[in-house]
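Q: Entry one of two.
A:
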Amino acid sequence: MYIVQIASELAPIAKVGGLADVVYGLSRELELRGNAVEIILPKYDRLWYDQIFGLAPTYNDLWVPWCDGAIRCTVWFGLVHGRKCYFIEPHSPEAFFERGTFYGQWDDPARFIFFSKAALEYLYRSGKRPDIIHVHDWQTAALPVLLYEMYQQAGMPNQRVCHTIHNFRHQGITDGYMLYATGLGHPERYFTHERLRDNFNHFALNLMKGGIVYSNFVTTVSPTHAWEARFTDQSFGFGETLHIHQSKFGGVLNGLDYEAWNPALDPMIAAPFDAVDIDRREANTKALRERCNLTDSDKPILAYVGRLDSQKGVHLIRHALFYAMNHDAQFVLLGSSPEPETNDHFRHIAGWLSPNRDIYIEVGFNEQLAHLIYAGAHGLVVPSIYEPCGLTQMMAMRYGAVPIVRRVGGLADTVFDWDYDSRPRDQRCGFVFDHPDFDGIESALQRFFGLYTNSPKLFRTLQRQAMGRDMSWRLPGQHYLDIYEHIRHR
C-alpha cells in the first residue's frame, strides 16, 4: 500500500509534543510491514537539519494557487532516520514557516491551510497517487475538504483520507478567508452546520470539524478517549458532530517507538538493562541522584516529566512533590509550561526548597535527562485531567519506572492497577486513581510507597511486569492497516 502522512511535526526534527513521535513511529511500523510510506512536512527554519540526510530540492517550481495569484514553492527531499520526507518551502512575503517557532503565530490558520493546499498540489502536480493520505490534528484538517471539493474532480478520485485527532482542544478556528485564499468560494455551502461552521460561533469555520466531516475515517489516540470524546465534554464541543459521524470514528491506541526507547541499548542512560537483568537498573538510579544532586539514600524516587499545564493536572503534580517530601521520598521534576507564571512558580519552589537535597526541579526540557529519569526513578506520576493517550507512562513502564496515573483516556488503556484491577495479577503494571483531587492522588501514592517500602520483592515484580507490557507499534500498526483497507474499498 502507498501511504502519505501529512503532518506539522515529526520526531526528532520538528517536535512539540507526542504528535511528532506518533508520525515517526507509525510511519516506521508501516514501512516494516512492507508498505511504501512518505511524509510531507513544512520546511520550518528551525528544523533539526543535522538529523536530515541528503536534503536536496526535488521539485523547484511548485506554484500553489493562493488568494488572487499563486505562491511558488520548492519541495525538498531528505531522509530522517530512514523515513522518506518531503519538505514544502514557500517563497512569499508571508514567510509562513520562517518564524523561529512551530506554532503560536497570529496567522496559524492561514499558515497551515496553505501547507495543506501545497501538499495536495504537490501530490497532484508530481503525479503521486497514494492509496491513503493520513492527516493529523487541525493543522492538516483542511486537506480532506480540499481533496473532495477540488482535487477529486481535477484528477485525484481514488485517494482516501484517515484523519487522526491527537487533541480536541485545539481546533483551528478561522473565518471565510480560507474559502477565498484556497479558491473554494461559496460561503453559503461551507458555513453550514453539516459542513464547516463552528458548533458555537456561527460566524467562524472550524478546520477540525471539516476534517471530521470530509475524512473517510477519523481516529483519536486511544479507545477510552474515543468514548470520552463522544459522551463527555472532552471533545470540546464535538459531541454531536462525532455522533453524526460515529460510523467512521474510533480510537487506536498510540504505540511507542521501541527503537528510540530501549533500555538495553539506550546511549543516554548510565547502564543498559532489561527486565531479566533489572538489578543493573540501580546504576541509573545512582547516576540520576548524582545528576540531580540528590542525597545518596535508599529512598524511592518519584518523578514527573512533561508539560506543566492545566491538562496535565499541574496542581496535582505540585501536591505529589510535597507529598513525597513529607513521606521520606525524593522527587525529580523536568518540565515546562506555555504559561510563564507557571514556570516562575516552579522556579520559586525550587529556590525555596534549595537546601533540601531530596527535591530537584528543572524548568525546561532535556532529552538526555528525561531518559535518565525514566531509567532511574522508581515511579512516575501522571495525574492528567484529560489525556487522549499519553506516551510518558509508556516510556516509564518500558524503563521500569512504575506509573501512578489517573484513570482517564489513554492512561486507562495502558496502566492497570496493582491492587484493584480485574485483570490477572501478572498483567497489572501501576497504580491508578479516579478523582482529580488531593485525596485521589494520595490514595495511589500511599499504595506505591507502601509496596516499595514493605514488599521490595513484589515491587521488583511490578517493575518487571510494567517492562514486559507490549506498547510497541505492532498492534496499533495493524489496526491502522485494517482501517486503511476498510476505507480503500468504500
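Q: Entry two of two.
A:
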Amino acid sequence: MPYCRSIRTAVAAGSSLIAIGLASPSTIAQDGFTNFSGNLTDIVSSLYGGDGITLRGSEVFSHAAHFTNGSLEQFNNLSLSVRDLSFPVLNPHIGVQFKYDAVLDEFVPTSDAFSASAFAFDAETVGDGEFHLGLAYSVRNFNELSGNPLSDITVDLRHMDLGDDGSDFPCLGGPVGACYAFEKDVIRLSIDLSIREEMFAATGAYGLSDKFDVSFFLPLLRTEMSVSSVATVVENPTRQFSPDSLHLFGGDSDDPVDALQATKTGIGDTVLRLSYSIGEPQEKGWNVNVGADARLPTGQVNNLQGLPRIGVRPRLIASRNIDVIGGIFRPHLNVAYGFNAGLNAEQIFDYAIGGSYAFNWSEAQNTVAVSVDFLGKHVTHNKDQMGDNQFDVSLGLKMRLLQSLNVYYNILLPLNKSGLRPAAQHVFGFQMQF
C-alpha cells in the first residue's frame, strides 16, 4: 500500500537510534488503554507485547501461527518525525523587557509594542544593558502524515517463514496451483495514533552593547502519545482450496485489540543565540542583523523532546520601520541555514517573510500589534522524501493594556501537507509589569 510504504521509508532512516525490545511493564488505565512505561519511540512496536501476534490453528490442521512485527518495528521512528526539523525558536523580543536603571540601581520594565510575531525576528537589537524576558505556552496536536490521517494507518504483519522455505511457500489441500499457500496470509492492523505536545518556554535576550546581544530559548515539554490497534486476518486467495481457515483469533491466541498510552515531561533542546547589528540604526532605512543559533541537545530524543548532536544555524535578518496611517509598519525578512537540524544530521534552508503593524489608542496607554508571516523550510542535505519542503503561515496579535499588562497570541498554520504536521500550533503568552 503506498501510504504504508511511505511511512516505512520515513522511519527506516533513523532506526539505528532505537533499541527494539519487549514492552515495558505497564498498567491498565480506566479508559481501556494500557499505561506504557517505556520510551515513546517504542510504543508502537510494543503493541501485542512487542513480539508479533500468535494465532490458534484450525481443528483440522493446528500449528503455532506466528505473525512477526517487523513492520511495526519500522514504526519506531515515525513519532520521531515530530522533532524532524526542531521546534521553532520563539522571538524573545515579544516578551516583557527590562532595562537597567543606574539611578534606581535595578532593572525596570519597558515594552516593545512592535514585535507581534512569535516565529519571525526583527533586526533591531535590544540595546545596551537591556534585558528582555518572556514566558509562553504552546500546544500542537499531530494528526497527519503527508496528508494522511494518523487515525487511519494500515500495517500488514507477515507470517513467520516456516522451515526457512523462503519464496517456496508451503501449500495445503492439493497440488501446486490448487492448494492453500497459508504463509501468504497477513494480519492487517488498523492503527489510530495520537501525538500531542505542550510546551512552556522561557525566552530572554540581553544587550551586551547597542549592536550586540545574546538570547536564549528554554522549553519544558509535556508529550502525550497513544496508539490503538484492531487486528484482522486477511487470507490469501488460495484459501479457496482449503475447507477450513487456518488462522483464527480466540482461545490462546493474542487479543486482536490492543491500546497503549504514555506521557513524558522533560526539558527540550536549549537554544542560545548571538545577534549583531550591521551599521548604524536608521529610522527610515533598513536595519540588517547577522547572528547564529546554537541548539544544545538537552532534550530526550527517545521521548520526542530533542534532537541528537549540537545544531548550528547562521541567520540573516533585515527589517525597517515605516509610518503608516497613524501607526508603525515593520516589515522583516529572515534567512537561515541549519546544520544538524534533524534526526539524521539534515541541513535545512529556512526563511520568513512578513511584518507587524502597531498602533496606540486611549491616550497612547494601550497598544495593539498584529503580524503576518510566511515561513518556509527546505531540506538540502540528507533528504528522506518526508517533510523535505514545508510551508506555514503565522498570524499574531499582541496587546499592551494599561501600560502594565502584555498579552499575545500566535497561530502557525501549515500551507502544505509535507511530513508529520499538526493542524495548527497555538502560542500564548502574557507578562505583568510590576
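A: Comment on entry two: The mean pLDDT is 79. Residues 86-146+195-224+263-432 form a domain with the Porin fold (CATH 2.40.160.40).
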